[in-house]
# Entry
Amino acid sequence: MVRGITSCIKEFKRDTILTPIFVIGEVAFDVLIPMMTGKLLDEGVKAGSMTHIVRYGVLVVAMAMIALLLGALSGRFAARAATGLSRNLRREMYRTVQQFSFANIDKFSTGGIITRLTTDVTNVQMAFMMLIRVAVRCPVMLICAWTLTFTINPKLALIFLVVIPILAAGLLIIMTSAHPLFERVFKKYDWLNNVVQENLLGIRVVKSFVREEYEKDKFGKVSKEIYLDFSKAEKIVAFNMPLMQICVYACMLTVSWLGANLVVGGELTTGQLTSMFSYIMMILMSLMMLSMVLVMIIISRASAERIEELLSEESDLKNGPDPVMEVKDGSVVFENVSFSYAKDPEKECLKDVDLTIRAGETVGILGGTGTSKTTLVQLIPRLYDATEGRVLVGGVDVRDYDMEALREQVAMVLQKNVLFSGTIKENLRWGNKEATDEEMVRVCRLAQADPFIQEFPDKYDTYIEQGGSNVSGGQKQRLCIARALLKKPKILILDDSTSAVDTKTDALIRKAFREEIPETTKFIIAQRISSIEDADKILVMDGGRITAMGTHQELLESCEIYREIHESQTKGGEDNA
# Structure
């Protein structure tokens, strides 16, 4: 279960090994101090010998200073190892997520991934620090202190043989009862993160529909469920402290009673009894700290399992043994393609698609909501794999390509356009990190983005806020189209990517495509027929199938669905005029 996590420790193996070594050294001096103190009382104070007082006093101070130094060193190395582990865990998880297919991301959800990268990693970091320091210190101190109590008085030392099994049994019951609850809590943290993320991304919609109270209630419901589960788990864990206190006070009372009788009977000296009390506190404090470690392990175990689940997840999309590195041209062929997100033939959203597109052709795709238009084009850059049949690009099955090489030649502007925080130039260079200013201006002119960029005071150095919140929907779409063009792809896919621009700008973009990138194969998903009427082929989709295919004029004559859409849009335009 912890294979992925332990691999993240290797870089800090030295710190991880040195920490318990220094801890053991610290404990060795700590457990000797009470013995020296006892000798100081018996051979120095009680005997009235100043020589012994000075000798043992200096020894105690020296041991305390050395223990302090070793403790500081162990703390330093433990901190480096634990923070290094958390850094590596986040890095490895982030890298793993970058390799995920859409299906893998859908499995974990965005909120679930965020929880693993934050809360779960913090829990594992804290537990690891306690494991290499406190979990080493406590057993070593317990064993050493208990051994030394035998040298003082074996009868009193046997008292701990009764206490330790009782404590161990109690802690085992607490651990087994609390772990399932913590597992459930962290799953609900995923849900909480999803609610928060959804609310923040859609805050403008929330406010425009005056749904703040509804969102508060939704958040409150999730938060309350987490509170109830956490409270239940913490109540179980809270039994740890009363159990410890019962054991501590029972031991102290028993040792006090028996020790006093032994001192009176001459079997035990005052100094030895003092040392015994110090060792009792060491043993019991070790048990208490060990119980705290076990509680932290209970909490972090659920987190570690969730981290390992993500790290061990493998993308369902992989390169073949000898992947093709070059895409010959932009031709696309669908051969009897069917697709299901659930990998279930009974739940196919694409059915028996046969399609041949030559390089350089413009293909329009039209259909109602839920007719799998987006699903169809997502198979081209292999964002998903066809459940049945195969998709060929440049005459080669997409599964035979190196995925990076294939996607470098397929530029896709998705339905949900995303801009990242940074300047316009930085966003455009996602298409080509080596692009010159002249190349960026050129593609922005093709995408009709240059005119509005020139109106900004900083022009191409204008800062884009997170998510592109300081530009309009149409401006965002045009910047995303320009970014895709900068890749100089063999295939360009626009998934309803001009819906927020006016018809004139839409026409200018299409004209630029025809004149400037004639050899690029273009797939245009649109709701407006005017956006695709000059396409070489227009696909009409319904129920996950291509129900009709042809030019604008051919479909007007042969396809009733296309004709109805055209008439409704034309009539709507005439009425508005």
Summary: The chain has a mean pLDDT of 81.
